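W.,

You were right to be curious about this one. When I first looked at the sequence I had no strong expectations either way, so I just let the prediction run and decided to look at it fresh. Below is the sequence, 384 residues in total, followed by the output.
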Amino acid sequence: MLSFYFSKNLRPIHGFVSGSWNIHLLIAPNTPPIKKFFSSKSFVLEDSNNRSIDCAPKIDTLSSKKVQNTELVKTLLRNYGFTNTQISKLVDVDPNILFCNPQKTILPKLEFFRSIGLSSNDIPRVICASYCQALLSRSLENQLIPCYNFLKSVLFLDQNVIKMLKHSPRVLLFNVEKILAPNIATLREAGVPQSVISFTMYRSPSTLFHESHKFKGGVNKAIEMGFNPQRSIFAHAVQVLCDMRESTFERKKEVYGRWGLSNDEILLAFRSHPMCMNLSEEKIMETMDFLVNRMGWQAAVVARCPVVLFFNLERRIIPRCTVVKILLTKELVKKDLRLTTFLIPREEVFLDRFVNKYQDDVPGLKNIYLRKMGLVEPRLGSKI
Protein backbone atom coordinates (compact mmCIF):
# COMPACT_ATOMS: atom_id res chain seq x y z
CA MET A 1 0.00 0.00 0.00
CA LEU A 2 1.11 3.54 0.68
CA SER A 3 3.49 4.87 3.24
CA PHE A 4 4.62 8.32 4.23
CA TYR A 5 8.02 9.94 4.59
CA PHE A 6 8.91 13.03 6.54
CA SER A 7 11.90 15.20 5.85
CA LYS A 8 12.46 15.68 9.58
CA ASN A 9 10.98 14.81 12.94
CA LEU A 10 8.73 17.59 14.15
CA ARG A 11 9.12 18.69 17.74
CA PRO A 12 8.24 21.83 19.66
CA ILE A 13 11.00 24.44 19.39
CA HIS A 14 12.07 26.05 22.68
CA GLY A 15 8.91 24.73 24.29
CA PHE A 16 6.64 26.04 21.56
CA VAL A 17 5.76 24.77 18.11
CA SER A 18 7.33 26.48 15.14
CA GLY A 19 5.26 27.42 12.14
CA SER A 20 7.85 25.99 9.74
CA TRP A 21 6.94 22.59 8.30
CA ASN A 22 8.50 20.46 5.60
CA ILE A 23 6.65 17.19 5.19
CA HIS A 24 6.41 15.01 2.12
CA LEU A 25 3.80 12.43 1.20
CA LEU A 26 5.19 9.78 -1.12
CA ILE A 27 4.25 6.39 -2.48
CA ALA A 28 6.53 3.81 -0.96
CA PRO A 29 9.15 2.17 -3.17
CA ASN A 30 8.02 -1.01 -4.90
CA THR A 31 4.39 -0.12 -4.26
CA PRO A 32 2.12 -0.84 -7.25
CA PRO A 33 0.99 2.31 -9.05
CA ILE A 34 -2.23 3.70 -7.68
CA LYS A 35 -4.11 2.84 -10.88
CA LYS A 36 -3.52 -0.87 -10.24
CA PHE A 37 -5.84 -0.72 -7.24
CA PHE A 38 -8.76 0.00 -9.55
CA SER A 39 -10.23 -1.84 -12.47
CA SER A 40 -10.36 0.03 -15.72
CA LYS A 41 -14.05 -0.89 -15.91
CA SER A 42 -15.35 -0.34 -12.41
CA PHE A 43 -14.36 0.05 -8.81
CA VAL A 44 -16.07 0.15 -5.45
CA LEU A 45 -15.86 2.85 -2.79
CA GLU A 46 -17.50 3.11 0.60
CA ASP A 47 -19.91 5.93 1.27
CA SER A 48 -20.12 7.77 4.61
CA ASN A 49 -22.24 4.93 6.03
CA ASN A 50 -19.71 2.27 5.00
CA ARG A 51 -22.04 1.01 2.26
CA SER A 52 -20.48 -0.20 -0.95
CA ILE A 53 -21.13 2.00 -3.95
CA ASP A 54 -20.52 0.85 -7.48
CA CYS A 55 -18.90 3.81 -9.15
CA ALA A 56 -18.69 2.32 -12.62
CA PRO A 57 -21.44 4.51 -14.08
CA LYS A 58 -19.72 7.61 -12.76
CA ILE A 59 -16.11 6.73 -13.48
CA ASP A 60 -16.11 8.77 -16.63
CA THR A 61 -16.99 11.88 -14.67
CA LEU A 62 -14.25 11.40 -12.11
CA SER A 63 -10.75 12.24 -13.07
CA SER A 64 -8.15 9.65 -12.22
CA LYS A 65 -6.40 12.36 -10.24
CA LYS A 66 -9.39 12.78 -7.95
CA VAL A 67 -9.73 9.03 -7.49
CA GLN A 68 -6.08 8.72 -6.61
CA ASN A 69 -6.33 11.70 -4.27
CA THR A 70 -9.32 10.20 -2.45
CA GLU A 71 -7.43 6.99 -1.78
CA LEU A 72 -4.35 8.91 -0.65
CA VAL A 73 -6.46 10.80 1.89
CA LYS A 74 -8.12 7.64 3.18
CA THR A 75 -4.85 5.76 3.43
CA LEU A 76 -3.16 8.65 5.20
CA LEU A 77 -5.94 8.83 7.78
CA ARG A 78 -5.90 5.06 8.30
CA ASN A 79 -2.13 5.17 8.85
CA TYR A 80 -2.75 7.64 11.67
CA GLY A 81 -5.22 5.35 13.39
CA PHE A 82 -8.54 6.49 11.91
CA THR A 83 -11.17 3.81 11.44
CA ASN A 84 -13.52 3.73 8.47
CA THR A 85 -16.31 5.00 10.73
CA GLN A 86 -14.21 7.95 11.85
CA ILE A 87 -13.23 8.76 8.28
CA SER A 88 -16.91 8.70 7.34
CA LYS A 89 -17.65 11.22 10.10
CA LEU A 90 -14.99 13.54 8.76
CA VAL A 91 -16.35 13.23 5.23
CA ASP A 92 -19.91 13.86 6.44
CA VAL A 93 -18.81 17.17 7.95
CA ASP A 94 -16.47 18.19 5.16
CA PRO A 95 -16.80 16.14 1.94
CA ASN A 96 -14.11 18.26 0.31
CA ILE A 97 -11.51 16.69 2.57
CA LEU A 98 -11.31 13.79 0.12
CA PHE A 99 -10.25 16.14 -2.66
CA CYS A 100 -7.77 18.33 -0.81
CA ASN A 101 -4.02 18.01 -1.18
CA PRO A 102 -3.19 15.51 1.59
CA GLN A 103 0.47 16.52 1.66
CA LYS A 104 -0.26 20.21 2.17
CA THR A 105 -3.58 20.15 4.02
CA ILE A 106 -3.83 17.03 6.19
CA LEU A 107 -0.39 15.54 6.80
CA PRO A 108 1.20 18.61 8.46
CA LYS A 109 -1.69 18.81 10.92
CA LEU A 110 -1.53 15.14 11.80
CA GLU A 111 2.20 15.45 12.37
CA PHE A 112 1.60 18.56 14.45
CA PHE A 113 -0.75 16.64 16.75
CA ARG A 114 1.76 13.82 16.98
CA SER A 115 4.64 16.21 17.72
CA ILE A 116 2.88 17.79 20.72
CA GLY A 117 2.39 14.39 22.33
CA LEU A 118 -0.96 13.01 21.18
CA SER A 119 -0.80 9.25 20.69
CA SER A 120 -2.05 7.35 17.65
CA ASN A 121 -5.22 6.58 19.62
CA ASP A 122 -5.65 10.17 20.80
CA ILE A 123 -5.35 11.86 17.41
CA PRO A 124 -8.50 10.33 15.84
CA ARG A 125 -10.47 10.82 19.07
CA VAL A 126 -9.52 14.49 19.30
CA ILE A 127 -10.21 15.25 15.64
CA CYS A 128 -13.45 13.25 15.51
CA ALA A 129 -14.83 14.62 18.77
CA SER A 130 -18.16 16.41 18.60
CA TYR A 131 -17.86 19.79 16.87
CA CYS A 132 -14.19 19.14 16.06
CA GLN A 133 -14.37 17.34 12.73
CA ALA A 134 -13.45 20.62 11.05
CA LEU A 135 -10.03 20.73 12.74
CA LEU A 136 -8.29 19.39 9.65
CA SER A 137 -9.64 22.28 7.60
CA ARG A 138 -8.32 24.92 10.02
CA SER A 139 -5.09 26.73 9.29
CA LEU A 140 -2.08 25.19 10.97
CA GLU A 141 -0.04 28.40 11.08
CA ASN A 142 -2.90 30.80 11.84
CA GLN A 143 -5.08 28.73 14.17
CA LEU A 144 -3.76 25.42 15.53
CA ILE A 145 -0.18 26.42 16.34
CA PRO A 146 -1.06 29.83 17.88
CA CYS A 147 -3.78 28.20 19.97
CA TYR A 148 -1.45 25.46 21.18
CA ASN A 149 1.28 27.97 22.02
CA PHE A 150 -1.19 30.08 23.98
CA LEU A 151 -2.41 27.07 25.94
CA LYS A 152 1.21 26.14 26.63
CA SER A 153 1.91 29.66 27.92
CA VAL A 154 -0.98 29.30 30.38
CA LEU A 155 -0.61 25.66 31.42
CA PHE A 156 3.21 25.55 31.15
CA LEU A 157 3.65 21.82 30.47
CA ASP A 158 2.94 19.79 27.33
CA GLN A 159 1.15 17.12 29.35
CA ASN A 160 -1.15 19.77 30.79
CA VAL A 161 -2.10 20.95 27.30
CA ILE A 162 -2.66 17.36 26.19
CA LYS A 163 -4.90 16.79 29.22
CA MET A 164 -7.04 19.75 28.22
CA LEU A 165 -7.17 18.78 24.55
CA LYS A 166 -8.39 15.30 25.45
CA HIS A 167 -11.11 16.77 27.64
CA SER A 168 -12.16 19.58 25.30
CA PRO A 169 -10.54 19.55 21.85
CA ARG A 170 -12.97 22.29 20.82
CA VAL A 171 -10.58 24.79 22.36
CA LEU A 172 -8.49 24.53 19.18
CA LEU A 173 -11.36 26.04 17.19
CA PHE A 174 -11.53 29.31 19.12
CA ASN A 175 -9.78 32.57 18.36
CA VAL A 176 -6.92 33.19 20.77
CA GLU A 177 -6.80 36.98 20.48
CA LYS A 178 -10.55 37.60 20.63
CA ILE A 179 -11.76 34.88 23.01
CA LEU A 180 -9.21 32.86 24.96
CA ALA A 181 -6.55 35.45 25.81
CA PRO A 182 -9.01 38.16 26.98
CA ASN A 183 -10.90 35.67 29.17
CA ILE A 184 -7.73 34.38 30.83
CA ALA A 185 -6.67 37.99 31.38
CA THR A 186 -10.05 38.70 33.02
CA LEU A 187 -9.50 35.85 35.48
CA ARG A 188 -6.05 37.11 36.39
CA GLU A 189 -7.30 40.67 36.83
CA ALA A 190 -9.94 39.33 39.23
CA GLY A 191 -7.24 37.74 41.36
CA VAL A 192 -7.86 34.16 40.27
CA PRO A 193 -4.69 32.11 41.01
CA GLN A 194 -3.01 29.84 38.50
CA SER A 195 -4.36 26.73 40.24
CA VAL A 196 -7.97 27.85 39.70
CA ILE A 197 -7.24 28.93 36.11
CA SER A 198 -5.85 25.46 35.41
CA PHE A 199 -8.85 23.89 37.14
CA THR A 200 -11.18 25.92 34.91
CA MET A 201 -9.34 24.85 31.77
CA TYR A 202 -9.41 21.18 32.76
CA ARG A 203 -12.87 20.85 34.30
CA SER A 204 -15.05 23.46 32.59
CA PRO A 205 -13.12 24.75 29.56
CA SER A 206 -16.33 25.67 27.74
CA THR A 207 -16.65 28.54 30.23
CA LEU A 208 -13.72 30.18 28.45
CA PHE A 209 -15.39 29.97 25.05
CA HIS A 210 -17.85 32.80 25.72
CA GLU A 211 -17.37 36.22 24.19
CA SER A 212 -15.13 38.35 26.37
CA HIS A 213 -17.80 40.85 27.45
CA LYS A 214 -20.15 38.07 28.57
CA PHE A 215 -17.34 36.23 30.34
CA LYS A 216 -16.27 39.37 32.18
CA GLY A 217 -19.87 39.94 33.23
CA GLY A 218 -20.04 36.41 34.66
CA VAL A 219 -16.80 36.91 36.60
CA ASN A 220 -17.96 40.24 38.05
CA LYS A 221 -21.36 38.78 38.96
CA ALA A 222 -19.75 35.85 40.78
CA ILE A 223 -17.62 38.24 42.83
CA GLU A 224 -20.69 40.36 43.65
CA MET A 225 -22.51 37.25 44.86
CA GLY A 226 -19.75 36.53 47.34
CA PHE A 227 -17.68 33.85 45.61
CA ASN A 228 -13.99 33.79 46.49
CA PRO A 229 -11.82 33.93 43.32
CA GLN A 230 -9.15 32.01 45.22
CA ARG A 231 -11.29 28.86 45.34
CA SER A 232 -12.12 26.41 42.56
CA ILE A 233 -15.86 26.74 43.21
CA PHE A 234 -15.52 30.22 41.71
CA ALA A 235 -14.97 28.56 38.32
CA HIS A 236 -18.26 26.66 38.64
CA ALA A 237 -20.12 29.85 39.54
CA VAL A 238 -18.71 31.66 36.50
CA GLN A 239 -19.66 28.70 34.32
CA VAL A 240 -23.30 28.78 35.47
CA LEU A 241 -23.57 32.55 35.22
CA CYS A 242 -22.08 32.58 31.71
CA ASP A 243 -23.99 29.58 30.36
CA MET A 244 -27.39 30.51 31.78
CA ARG A 245 -29.59 33.38 30.67
CA GLU A 246 -30.43 35.83 33.42
CA SER A 247 -34.15 35.13 32.93
CA THR A 248 -33.53 31.40 33.41
CA PHE A 249 -31.49 32.06 36.54
CA GLU A 250 -34.33 34.15 37.99
CA ARG A 251 -36.85 31.44 37.12
CA LYS A 252 -34.79 28.83 39.01
CA LYS A 253 -34.68 31.17 42.01
CA GLU A 254 -38.46 31.38 41.83
CA VAL A 255 -38.71 27.56 41.85
CA TYR A 256 -36.64 27.34 45.03
CA GLY A 257 -38.63 30.25 46.45
CA ARG A 258 -41.84 28.20 46.23
CA TRP A 259 -40.56 26.25 49.22
CA GLY A 260 -40.39 29.32 51.37
CA LEU A 261 -36.70 29.98 50.85
CA SER A 262 -35.60 33.60 51.08
CA ASN A 263 -33.26 35.21 48.55
CA ASP A 264 -30.44 34.90 51.08
CA GLU A 265 -31.12 31.17 51.57
CA ILE A 266 -31.23 30.61 47.81
CA LEU A 267 -27.97 32.51 47.41
CA LEU A 268 -26.48 30.40 50.20
CA ALA A 269 -27.43 27.25 48.29
CA PHE A 270 -25.93 28.66 45.09
CA ARG A 271 -22.70 29.59 46.87
CA SER A 272 -22.52 26.10 48.34
CA HIS A 273 -23.11 24.30 45.04
CA PRO A 274 -23.48 26.57 41.96
CA MET A 275 -24.66 23.70 39.77
CA CYS A 276 -27.89 23.49 41.78
CA MET A 277 -29.20 26.14 39.37
CA ASN A 278 -28.67 23.73 36.47
CA LEU A 279 -31.16 21.22 37.85
CA SER A 280 -34.49 21.02 36.03
CA GLU A 281 -37.60 22.44 37.66
CA GLU A 282 -39.09 18.94 37.77
CA LYS A 283 -36.05 17.51 39.57
CA ILE A 284 -36.01 20.34 42.12
CA MET A 285 -39.74 20.06 42.85
CA GLU A 286 -39.82 16.25 43.13
CA THR A 287 -36.85 16.02 45.46
CA MET A 288 -37.90 18.95 47.63
CA ASP A 289 -41.43 17.52 47.86
CA PHE A 290 -40.11 14.22 49.18
CA LEU A 291 -37.58 15.69 51.62
CA VAL A 292 -39.84 18.44 52.95
CA ASN A 293 -43.38 17.05 52.75
CA ARG A 294 -42.78 13.34 53.24
CA MET A 295 -39.65 13.30 55.38
CA GLY A 296 -40.32 16.46 57.35
CA TRP A 297 -37.02 18.29 56.82
CA GLN A 298 -37.18 22.05 56.61
CA ALA A 299 -36.50 23.58 53.20
CA ALA A 300 -33.77 25.74 54.73
CA VAL A 301 -32.00 22.58 55.94
CA VAL A 302 -31.99 21.21 52.39
CA ALA A 303 -30.75 24.55 51.05
CA ARG A 304 -27.71 24.32 53.30
CA CYS A 305 -26.63 21.09 51.58
CA PRO A 306 -27.97 21.36 48.00
CA VAL A 307 -25.71 18.54 46.83
CA VAL A 308 -28.40 16.09 47.99
CA LEU A 309 -30.70 17.38 45.24
CA PHE A 310 -28.42 15.82 42.63
CA PHE A 311 -28.91 12.25 43.84
CA ASN A 312 -31.34 9.88 42.16
CA LEU A 313 -34.65 10.06 43.99
CA GLU A 314 -35.78 6.46 43.46
CA ARG A 315 -32.42 4.72 43.69
CA ARG A 316 -30.77 6.66 46.49
CA ILE A 317 -32.81 9.27 48.33
CA ILE A 318 -36.03 7.31 48.96
CA PRO A 319 -34.36 4.00 49.98
CA ARG A 320 -31.92 5.67 52.36
CA CYS A 321 -34.50 8.03 53.84
CA THR A 322 -36.83 5.07 54.43
CA VAL A 323 -34.16 3.34 56.50
CA VAL A 324 -33.29 6.49 58.44
CA LYS A 325 -36.96 7.21 59.14
CA ILE A 326 -37.33 3.76 60.70
CA LEU A 327 -34.22 4.32 62.82
CA LEU A 328 -35.50 7.74 63.91
CA THR A 329 -38.86 6.26 64.89
CA LYS A 330 -37.12 3.68 67.07
CA GLU A 331 -34.78 6.38 68.44
CA LEU A 332 -31.72 4.47 67.25
CA VAL A 333 -30.15 7.57 65.68
CA LYS A 334 -30.10 11.23 66.73
CA LYS A 335 -32.98 13.44 65.67
CA ASP A 336 -30.59 16.12 64.41
CA LEU A 337 -29.00 13.73 61.90
CA ARG A 338 -27.80 15.72 58.91
CA LEU A 339 -28.90 14.82 55.39
CA THR A 340 -25.33 14.70 54.16
CA THR A 341 -24.44 12.12 56.83
CA PHE A 342 -26.46 9.39 55.17
CA LEU A 343 -27.06 10.59 51.59
CA ILE A 344 -23.48 11.35 50.55
CA PRO A 345 -21.52 8.23 51.71
CA ARG A 346 -20.80 5.40 49.28
CA GLU A 347 -23.16 2.43 49.25
CA GLU A 348 -20.89 0.19 51.34
CA VAL A 349 -20.43 2.90 53.96
CA PHE A 350 -24.16 3.57 54.22
CA LEU A 351 -24.90 -0.15 54.63
CA ASP A 352 -22.32 -0.49 57.41
CA ARG A 353 -23.44 2.61 59.31
CA PHE A 354 -27.20 2.49 58.95
CA VAL A 355 -28.29 -1.00 57.88
CA ASN A 356 -25.97 -3.78 59.00
CA LYS A 357 -25.32 -2.07 62.33
CA TYR A 358 -29.02 -2.21 63.27
CA GLN A 359 -30.03 -5.59 61.86
CA ASP A 360 -30.57 -7.02 65.36
CA ASP A 361 -32.60 -4.00 66.46
CA VAL A 362 -34.71 -3.94 63.30
CA PRO A 363 -34.99 -7.44 61.80
CA GLY A 364 -35.49 -7.31 58.05
CA LEU A 365 -34.10 -3.77 57.75
CA LYS A 366 -31.82 -4.79 54.89
CA ASN A 367 -34.69 -6.38 52.97
CA ILE A 368 -36.72 -3.20 53.41
CA TYR A 369 -33.82 -1.20 51.98
CA LEU A 370 -33.31 -3.59 49.07
CA ARG A 371 -37.03 -3.52 48.22
CA LYS A 372 -36.94 0.27 48.07
CA MET A 373 -33.92 -0.04 45.80
CA GLY A 374 -35.96 -2.34 43.58
CA LEU A 375 -33.47 -5.18 44.07
CA VAL A 376 -35.95 -7.66 45.60
CA GLU A 377 -39.66 -8.17 45.06
CA PRO A 378 -41.89 -6.69 47.80
CA ARG A 379 -43.67 -9.24 49.93
CA LEU A 380 -47.43 -9.55 49.53
CA GLY A 381 -49.16 -7.11 51.85
CA SER A 382 -46.00 -5.14 52.64
CA LYS A 383 -46.74 -1.48 53.35
CA ILE A 384 -43.17 -0.24 53.75
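Here's what jumped out at me. The first helix runs from residue 64 to 79. And, maybe more interesting for your project: The mean pLDDT is 82.

Coffee later to discuss?

I.
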